[in-house]
Specification:
By secondary structure, the chain is an alpha/beta fold. The protein is built from five helices and eleven strands; from the N terminus they run βαβββααββββααβββ. The strands form three sheets. Strands 6-7-8-9-10-11 form a six-stranded mixed beta sheet. A three-stranded parallel beta sheet has the order 1-4-5. A hairpin with a 5-residue loop joins strand 10 and strand 11. The protein binds zinc ion.
């Protein structure tokens, strides 16, 4: 698949390590792709995001370059068949998780709610300095882990080395089910 053949890109949020690849030499890396993003997250970055100024500038540049191909959604909208964004706010103001469901198998992409799985899956109230709204982030982290454990959803995140089903840990928090 070539970059031009990519039709849809699903953004969990607009932090610099999630959007830098969208531009190549100032042009869209994916010239035909729609960028899906939560309206809450998009508006925050365009107006009053409290991230580093150069990160905000990059997000605005991406918005300019992709222009009409940015499509905002409400949480809970099934954006394309089988892919539903849900609120997972706190890491950034409009941070999103994606639930992907196909043929009875569910997967949750948790985005940046977890940076250090060994700690944050156990102590879900522990936040990194990257979580802009720690109380919201902690609640979202607990909620998404509980949901994935309860419903047997495959669990993955951008900063999590492992991927697979999770369960409640008998001592504290959650853990990946092994062997996977
Ligand atoms: Zn982030």
């Amino acid at each position: 698949m070539t970059p031009a053949e990519v039709t849809d890109i699903f953004m969990t949020h607009l932090d610099v390590d999630h959007i830098s690849g969208l531009l190549t030499g100032g042009e869209a890396t994916y010239p035909n792709a729609v960028l899906h993003i939560s309206g809450v997250e998009f508006d925050a970055w365009m107006h009053d995001m409290d991230r580093e100024p150069e990160y905000v500038a990059l997000a605005k540049r991406v918005a300019r370059v992709y222009g009409e191909r940015i499509k905002t959604f409400e949480y809970g909208d099934e954006v394309v068949p089988g892919i539903t964004p849900r609120a997972a706010r706190g890491h950034t103001f409009g941070h999103t998780r994606y639930d992907i469901d196909s043929k009875g198998v569910g997967m949750t992409i948790v985005g940046d709610l977890i940076h250090v799985a060994a700690i944050q899956m156990r102590w879900t109230d522990y936040c990194t300095i990257y979580d802009a709204h720690p109380t919201m982030a902690a609640a979202a982290r607990e909620a998404v882990l509980a949901d994935a454990a309860e419903h047997g959803r495959i669990f993955a995140g951008m900063h999590i080395k492992e991927i697979g089903r999770i369960e409640r840990d008998p001592v504290r928090g959650y853990r990946f089910v092994s062997p996977r």
